[in-house]
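U., I forgot to send this yesterday:
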Amino acid sequence: QDYITKSKWQDNIVSTGSMRTALALCLQENSGALTSCDTVTKLGVDMPTPSYATITFAATTAIITATGTTEVGGLTITWTPDQSNNSNVAWTLGGTCTKAKCGIDI
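Result:
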């Protein structure tokens, strides 16, 4: 059962890839100015719609959150952009998922 849940979480994780890439690119192109990248419209992407999660984007912090459906335990994964290195955006993972449940270290 955990294998099936992990594979469903991989769908959730992969579905946020284009959004994370677009946000990182936007921040780099706009000298880290979050106000230039605070909506999916400004990022030029559609909000992902994976089968096993709801994706949200917090405009004031640029945190991307995947909240799993009850089918995958209702757990969450958050991606917070870290701009401390001016040339790259790194991602700090958070949330309630565990490697055993979601297949990702948080």
